Amino acid sequence: MPLALFPSLLDAMDWSQLAPAVQRMHGEGKVLEASGTAHVDGDAHLLARLLRRLLSLPEPGAAQAIALTIERNGQRETWTRRFARGQMRSTLQPGGGTLLRERLGPVSLHFSLHRDDHAIDWQLRRVTVLGLPLPRTLCGTVLSRSGTHEGRYAFDINARLPGIGRLIAYRGWLEIDRVL
Prior knowledge:
It contains five helices and eleven strands. By secondary structure, it is an alpha+beta fold. It has one domain (5-179): Lipocalin. β5 (99-104) and β6 form a beta hairpin.
């Protein structure tokens, strides 16, 4: 049986040193359901709001309930995040070599994954829009980390774009409710 997506993109030794909550979230079951709380931030100007809507990103709001469903089909995963103020769906799959590709509507983000202590740091390497590469100067920065806090799975994502500022930042925790 082939490895799940995340274990296949990390060195086996690095995978084994991740926190148990991170391993479970990124490697167990065909369907995983989790719930928790997220704090969502983002600039309030019109362009940031329109881009969030185009990409189906949640709207800012503190202490929002979040429910996550991960559906795994081999090395392709569909992540559906239901926030109190919006739903966000993305598809994750291998992106060539050791890269992870996350598709949000017409945009694909290509990350390299690295273990940092007991967490995964996602490092943005390139962005494509409708399959066409975006110049690096327009990609902005996306900081993303999957780790733990007080034994629970924790996430911290911050995306900034040139000329727009903070498109979205969300951080919080999840507890796994069910794995099938």
